[in-house]
Protein 1
Amino acid sequence: MIKRIGNRTLEFTNQPTVRAYASVAGKKESEGPLGGLFDKIITDSYDGLDTYEDAESQLQTEAMALALKKGKLKKSDIDFVFAGDLLNQCVGSSFGLKDYNIPYLGQYGACSTMAQNIIAASVFVESGAAENAGCSTSSHFCSAERQYRYPLEYGAIRTPTAQWTVTGAGCCIIGNGECKVKISRATVGKIIDLGITDANNMGAAMAPAAAETIAAFFKDTDSSPSDFDCIFTGDLGEVGSNSLYELLQREGIDIKNNHRDCGLMIFERRFQDVHAGGSGCGCCASVLCSKILNDLEHGKLKNILFIATGALLSATTAGQSKTIPSIAHLVNLQS
Amino acid sequence: MIKRIGNRTLEFTNQPTVRAYASVAGKKESEGPLGGLFDKIITDSYDGLDTYEDAESQLQTEAMALALKKGKLKKSDIDFVFAGDLLNQCVGSSFGLKDYNIPYLGQYGACSTMAQNIIAASVFVESGAAENAGCSTSSHFCSAERQYRYPLEYGAIRTPTAQWTVTGAGCCIIGNGECKVKISRATVGKIIDLGITDANNMGAAMAPAAAETIAAFFKDTDSSPSDFDCIFTGDLGEVGSNSLYELLQREGIDIKNNHRDCGLMIFERRFQDVHAGGSGCGCCASVLCSKILNDLEHGKLKNILFIATGALLSATTAGQSKTIPSIAHLVNLQS
């Protein structure tokens, strides 16, 4: 059963476990600091297929195949898959996972999708609805640029606050087997909208959502940043991370000393031209399903927070000069 | 706790209840057979706002407000809201619900979203994660036409198999209070893709998914169509309903005598020019949150199946001549 603690944090009394995980990433990501940790690298943006969208779908197909293999699981062992992505109507997920024949629950949380998947999967496992549930998401630089900004052929100039969409996917399997990494608590985000309208500065739009969720978790659980080895955010990048510090400081919370942002971990910005850092559903998903879960599995990390943030806009709302509502979901992982 | 019965059907042992529900619909829908049952009608496609997208968001804002009011609930009574829609990046839901300040889990199931919401909400309630959870979705004829087909100003001709996107929203609150209508069982759909590529014939694309889920439910629960007062499908329309009968007949299942499709219920096709019937997330959501839940609440129906179907394509995949993967989720409601 699940206990509600404080105002809205969930505590998993049986603690679902991460039975397996895998990541797939693109060439640029392979050249970053985590390059050696991804399970598979695709060097061709098309991944041998006809379109960038096909390539993105295949990232999810492959991440799921690798996770199943690494976990010695069959696809029939997985009761549900929770998945979503940034492509319109989440076609990266539906096309990428359709041949697995697993009951499918499409999620939409923009770049917060991986944390949302894990929360939903953990609730399903804890409730008895699932024995094992898959969590999958992806992003692809080329399909995202085409859909959200400009076709690459235009050679459009990017602003300094812009982030670079990660080509990558992550998949993890949540279950109740005996495994080292456990999901102990989670806080579901609220939609936060402070009126930011600059679609080239997602970090600033998403930071208030991250701050709200993190503050809620600390309050609900009566804990503080020093209780955790590390607080990982999804893809705030440099601008968003700085906003986050400032917003949390106003609440008397200082996370600077043990915070890392997946968008800043995946690229080496001194050498890689990614402006404010990496972004996209695949950013924190591929970092979680490589570096973070590796370190938890091997005891380098014992107790962490994983907060994935998402900007809930569309190209239509951006064109209509709407604000950017954002959200952040938090998962507490322990080993 | 939740029991898994048969291969993949979920049985809710505590049976979450429908604590409240409300529907909002457009002018054309108000002129159909269910017109008198909707809680609110909007007669202006813009609903007094600047864009069709704003109007669609407001449908969800209003449906949620009405459901809370009818259920004598405050927004702070709702622990989570599950919502999604057909607009790119589900902005109908995120903009429509952002001011409620309720932890938000965005769902994407295309027109199957309402059933998916109810399943997720029921699992959250049954597990103890939520006391009350909201389920919300919408569609709007004008925003859907612009995004998926042509701007209305073009006056494009529609094919006879095309369906008419319903302008409407439905919201229901799932909880564990003492209420008449209970959620007893549910079957989550798999992604089914039989290779149909005609984006103007969604009924045909979605029927195989409905058939697969319905057959799985009957097998898992050892039940048959005659055990239920009515089997409601989401928005298969005329073409899809006929395909469904044929596909199920091959499995020895005959649902013809007690089947109704929300896409055929919401419009009177003899007088209303909607071709093969209504469609959109708001179609079955508004029919469920008016006629169906009314009839369950007042004892006219005792035991029904609600199967919402979704086509998991995008305008991009349609333009790339891809097939249309589809899905159908089933909920068994009893009173």
Protein 2
Amino acid sequence: MKVLVVGSVAFDDIESPSGTREGLLGGSASYFSLAASGFTPVDLVAPVGEDFPLDLVAPWKERGIDTAGLEVVPGGKTFRWSGRYRGEMNAAETIRTELNVLGTFRPKIPPALRTPDLLFLANTHPATQTSVLDQVKRPRFVLADTMNLWIETERDALLRLLKSVDGLLLNEEEARMLSGERNLIAAGKRILDLGPRAVVVKKGEHGSFLFSAYEFFALPAYPLVRVVDPTGAGDSFAGGLMGSLASGGAASLGALRRAMVHGTVSASFAVEAFGTEGIAAASAKAREARYQEFLQFVSI
Amino acid sequence: MKVLVVGSVAFDDIESPSGTREGLLGGSASYFSLAASGFTPVDLVAPVGEDFPLDLVAPWKERGIDTAGLEVVPGGKTFRWSGRYRGEMNAAETIRTELNVLGTFRPKIPPALRTPDLLFLANTHPATQTSVLDQVKRPRFVLADTMNLWIETERDALLRLLKSVDGLLLNEEEARMLSGERNLIAAGKRILDLGPRAVVVKKGEHGSFLFSAYEFFALPAYPLVRVVDPTGAGDSFAGGLMGSLASGGAASLGALRRAMVHGTVSASFAVEAFGTEGIAAASAKAREARYQEFLQFVSI
């Protein structure tokens, strides 16, 4: 099955208790693609500036990531994000955001990419996400990410989007904000009423929840003794999840549970190193070993 | 198998978003006994004051809780705790603590209670916990609770205790404080080195971890749409866990995993109502139904 991600490619500057790194390859589409390509070929649509050295993503071809949809904006500069993690590293502190080419990005999906089986709408303005949906033949499963900014400032556009997606991925705080419910279980149920048939709540080191009309499902995070850089954990989770769904062939609830384990495993590799280095380095063998190990961690 | 708990019986005043209640029956031994008695008979040792109306615990006999070890301290007043929960209710804010008879409690285990198969040392001064261990024939499994106060002020006594118990129950913050590790997984592993062969970390709404020399195990919390009063969740968890171990006959790692699910279920009943009302009202049928439901929530 064909997987398409529309999102960002970025340069990230990261400060964490493990050190400081500048100009790391980052962005939602990068993390997602690297995670999903462990399972299935991936098409990527994202903007970069003229400053972006395309040889950075040349090795991705061998992994089955087609970067034909990487749009080099003439005269533009690549999106750059600088962030800091401290203490228990539960939340990033944004030092600086330079949207650059991302600020004016109106994705045009190339004709060859308009029939994805699975589509991941990485976090951007909900109207932009909707415009992507309008350009593609209805995929089997559409998963959207969002953020607190859009929930606060673009609620109507977001609510419209939610009527057209199959799954919504968001973190605890966002789930509470979107639903108006303080209790996270109540929040998940309330969001189901807004349209998606699957709501995945990411809880960082506390794992994840899946809400659907028929069932509730909960997973812990993969237990890591050391987290180096949590950036991209959510997009890597989404990549493992969608890759697993693509390789399994269908988005049944059983498949979604297994896909969430793969998402959990992908996220664990992502946060073990700076930037995309961890998820890029995770071999099929290492991923499978961690998947099996994880099943032991949660079996009763 | 015989289960003994040494802890507190208290009056609690609780403020939560669900309302305000005064003079609720509380205390670690109360929550523990009510949860464990769903599985097995329980003996309780705890001090109360002359102000304690013994008819409050008279109905416990029918549940298999033997209150012969309830020590009425002449001229004493019952331990009283006033606390408040706000917002996401993750932590209690203590308004007032009146230790009263608990402040001078030196438990004397009645001769008939000195051969428990399982022993729960509820949270008190670690030297007091050790004195209980010194009075009983070595049980098959000893589980101890503790708190931030003892970790900070009585570390040596606590470290001595840890060399003599099988399991330690503590929350996230306490695990970090005791181990000096910020990462919770590293913390759990470090605490194993201090003596216990099982370390159970309670994470409230985020579930629980089990660390042992051989394995790691993680569970989410039971998903509740509404939490009324989190007081006693940890002691109810311990009660369900130890009750399950007692009824199963052994503390194998497989039995511990199932016992943690029972602990999770017990805690979920406890927090659904004020004081001990929730755990006291949970029928065997309701507990079994929630246990089976929970297995579905976490099965992959």
Protein 3
Amino acid sequence: MIYYEKSVSSEQIYSGKIIKVRLDKVEMPDGSLADRELVEHPGGVGIVAVTDENEIILVKQFRKPFEKDIYEIPAGKLEPGEDHRECGIRELSEETGCRADSFEYLGFMYPSPGFLDEVTHIYLATGLHRGSAHPDDDEFLDVLYVPVKEVRQMIMDNRINDGKTVFGVLKALEFLKG
Amino acid sequence: MIYYEKSVSSEQIYSGKIIKVRLDKVEMPDGSLADRELVEHPGGVGIVAVTDENEIILVKQFRKPFEKDIYEIPAGKLEPGEDHRECGIRELSEETGCRADSFEYLGFMYPSPGFLDEVTHIYLATGLHRGSAHPDDDEFLDVLYVPVKEVRQMIMDNRINDGKTVFGVLKALEFLKG
């Protein structure tokens, strides 16, 4: 059965540098009206980069919403009109200095589909060649090479909590298993 | 190394029914200033419910940000002050009519840690007893019992894209494997 929520009005609340916020009034399947608070985001790309030594590259960086630094896979936001594959290759290079012989698409994630239109594309990068990182001016992060087995343990022990990282790593491990 | 971004000012942009939006000016590790657009969300709980017949319960519901219906595990937002375990038990009952003999904590997820403070707690529910669902007035959803093997295939084929669902199911399968 398909339920549809038709917008009967839409009010722009905020238009920022990264996000936009709007409030829609929608007609529910039973004809009643409901409010939908919606956040628009440009989306991004995360990269599960696995070395020939069976390590995964993690970055540790401060995240303001939690006032602490957390572990994530290398990732970044899409520039307007940017192809997500190109974005992934660019972000992996900027954050880690690596380029990859193989860059395979693992699918996309909706981080919080109830109110947020963000889409995060995930790639698996292998055949890595190290170079020097060149992060953006406002990016401060540590780059870590962690054995796959240890990353899996960090996920199971709740030391890695970032959605795209768990989504990407567990999917990559299933993919590599064949 | 720890990088910290201290807020030097904070401006409330929007305070809605579910989300709040604020704009912080932060001092970066090198002393420069940067803007941080931040969304506050009450957080929620997702439940990976596995039947004795080795099926996972999925719900299919319309999600306004994508203008389509998508597959997710049963889930819901935390009420103010609500314990996340109680919330999980309540949401599983409301959306599917099931109660569970065993309700194990699998950890928490940050859906989009760059700008969103939402935390999603994940539980594994087993020993299920079916009853009748009693969704909220503004919830319209279909409840599906899908074999574990098929859910795994739907994840690998990109037919399931919800972050908490992939995070929860793949982590639950690792957990059940031991």
Protein 4
Amino acid sequence: MNGAESLIRAALAAGIDVCFANPGTTEMPLVAALDAVPGMRAVLGLFEGVCSGAADGYARMRGTPAMTLLHLGPGLANGLANLHNARRAHAPLVNVVGDHATWHRAVDAPLTSDIVSLATPMSDWVRTSRSAATVAGDMADAIAAALSPPGGVATLIVPADCQWDPVGDTATPVRSPAARGRSDGSTIERVARLLRDTVDVTMLLGGHGLDRAGLTAAARIAAASGCKLFSETFPARIERGAGIAAPVRLPYFPEQALQALTGARTLLLAGATAPVAFFGYPGMPSSLVPEGCHIEVLAGPEADVTAALEAVADALGAAPAPREAPRPLPARPSGKLDPASLGAALAALQPEGAIVVDESATSGGPYLAMAPAAPPHSCLALTGGAIGQGLPTATGAAIACPDRRVVALQADGSAMYTLQALWTQARESLNVTTLICANRLYRILQIEAKRAGVGTPGPQARGLTVLSPPPIGWVDLARGLGVPGVRVETADDLVSQLERALATPGPNLIEVVL
Amino acid sequence: MNGAESLIRAALAAGIDVCFANPGTTEMPLVAALDAVPGMRAVLGLFEGVCSGAADGYARMRGTPAMTLLHLGPGLANGLANLHNARRAHAPLVNVVGDHATWHRAVDAPLTSDIVSLATPMSDWVRTSRSAATVAGDMADAIAAALSPPGGVATLIVPADCQWDPVGDTATPVRSPAARGRSDGSTIERVARLLRDTVDVTMLLGGHGLDRAGLTAAARIAAASGCKLFSETFPARIERGAGIAAPVRLPYFPEQALQALTGARTLLLAGATAPVAFFGYPGMPSSLVPEGCHIEVLAGPEADVTAALEAVADALGAAPAPREAPRPLPARPSGKLDPASLGAALAALQPEGAIVVDESATSGGPYLAMAPAAPPHSCLALTGGAIGQGLPTATGAAIACPDRRVVALQADGSAMYTLQALWTQARESLNVTTLICANRLYRILQIEAKRAGVGTPGPQARGLTVLSPPPIGWVDLARGLGVPGVRVETADDLVSQLERALATPGPNLIEVVL
């Protein structure tokens, strides 16, 4: 056995059996180990951001990590944007990065770089293996770190000689991650009293508070106490649809978020952190907590939010699982194609158990408003704001849940950053339907330019926010990557093509011209 | 005037008039400044690696920097791989990265990250502006740092409030970069004596030693002294073709490089550093300097190599500009399409003054051997080993030299990392012909796996090195990005299509099925 084989064994022993890989020369012993040690499924991405985003999507759906395999500093660098999103999602993920042999680093070969400096900003845990003998233990530590609440990105750098050097047949180490903390009885008591005795309490749900059990408990609390329910703006994962409590999504722009929270005298945090503005604007505060509003923490992202919510509901004597009022499914739209008809079509047609990966940016608002009426489904959002997350995350979610249809609701500008993911969907025959919201603009930047006081954008500002000419031909791009696609220009066409696409195994793409 | 406008003015005052941009919300004041302050050409890339690679190609051809404009940590991260190549090329480049307003960083908004930690490994100079008042001076310092020998990557991080805050109408600062060092008289004397008195001297040329004047002086020295001439394996830029001295390219694999240098008793460095293996292999040394070989430095990459070479040639009393023996142009190939016929077709057809961007990996060897017979041209190589350099660098070279035809000789696997560059070529109507070497393999990894002792690759190793199924349809991908393309499967078709493509204005692509 060599160091590389000991690493793969440690991964398998901890239950990691999917590796999203884009390896190079310094990872060859690990590639060989994937054959020498049976049990790991290697999935090739043609760009590292596909691998890191797929590992994020996989983790959000499974709750357990996949590993990546990346090539030195530049390979890691290409994966960092989606690692940033994964870290903000608290998605457990083990990032394995090769490096030059330890004795080769000193000569500063062309591919040498400071990998630790690159990894640290987007990782919760970083280590470089020192010898083949430590590799298995390092990997076990990395996995435990990734799984420790609230979940995070662990990056293990493994020099090539630590991969190829022999280690003998030692036992495979397994480490237990820390457990999720439980909110203590006094916190439960205090929050229950607060809810009983106070009006104008607003609860902000995040993290696992947005899973089905968390939402049910939150709905019981709201029914018993009258508190308002909000969700984070960009949840890592939220369960939605008919019969599931639907908290109000905290708006994106700070003035709208502050408006939404107006009147809250207590903001109760359940799996969420105190809300802050996505960007700073002149004259606007960074904090979205209204002045004079008191913050009460029921459970942080690292705690067992669901248990805390259930304990509070019980303490309030709340009735079990209030029945959600039925919401009418939108009619299948006809006529003009716009964000509203796009949203109606998807909400009306998406199958039960769909996984909707939402990187729709400015085109998705109407869909998000209608989605609570759709059949029960999971929705994964762009947690960290690093665009190019949607197609890779959809890819990983489809690997994690082969029996569920994945729908990527995807802005066109953002899709361009990691379009290579479509190729992996084709190679692996994944059940992913991609809806490209083709407005051919960086629309959000046009809005932001207006907010920044640019009245009429000049030719340079216009050139940097308009994606045509040339128009991006998404059907051609998809075909080039092995995915069948169609372009639709009316709502009627969208309905018929979407219905067909959702019922067709394997990946497909619809360019929705908005 | 605000900080953003003062930055653009400082750039223009130093001669920077091209900005390769992929901005976001935190860069909006800089985008507005591109209209408010006339003179800067903004070129949109749909992925940040396109911007950084284009700035690299621009700098290699112009010798002066372009600027980039990137969006916070994740945007910078997407540009790092090509910044790594630019740094290894000593290409002067000013990287401008926006950040949250200074007062917004503390709240750890979703897009917050440690930008300095990300930037440092791939930059020669990093600074974060502290207020709008310092921005213009910071930019002037960044430009001077980028231009100081040997040339490098300067990264300036500009928080949003430092962009939008007013600065008044202050004078625009300009800083002088350091001058290239001159080798002193005693070094020239010592090297001349060495060349006169010693046999078995091998000169390794790099950096500006590979420009036309440097190569001419080196050829004079070789003719007068009998020394051998080698070039770096991956030059940032080398002039090649009929009438130009053609040093031997130092081979890529270490055993071949050591073999090539066997018998050298002195290795004379002219613009190059002492050669090291690209990767470390078990049982192979990191250094490629043969045992017992003495190293003599005529001029480092930061020095005026050409002046040093000319001084040595004069000290030797070498005759001016030896006539290069004419090399027969390869015949236009016919029949089977393979790396040899591809190389012959390109060498036979490329026009005088072409710029060949070489990211051909395993498919380009025959071309590189034949290129000295082609009409005079410039060749830009993959300096840092971070693949995905070719298409962006070709884009930037075409912006720098609109009157020259750019040819991207491009491996298919590597092209996938930054294919978005084709869109920028289409939008800007750039004269770039891309030849995709479509072997549908990560062929280099198959070679490396064999070198690593993997006899017959197992299914996992095979799956990670074979790019089909599905085959990547490059003609479809190009069409989707606005670039006309054709697929060729015989040498005859390649010849006729390449001849046509090279004579057609604007970008085009040929998928060469190998």
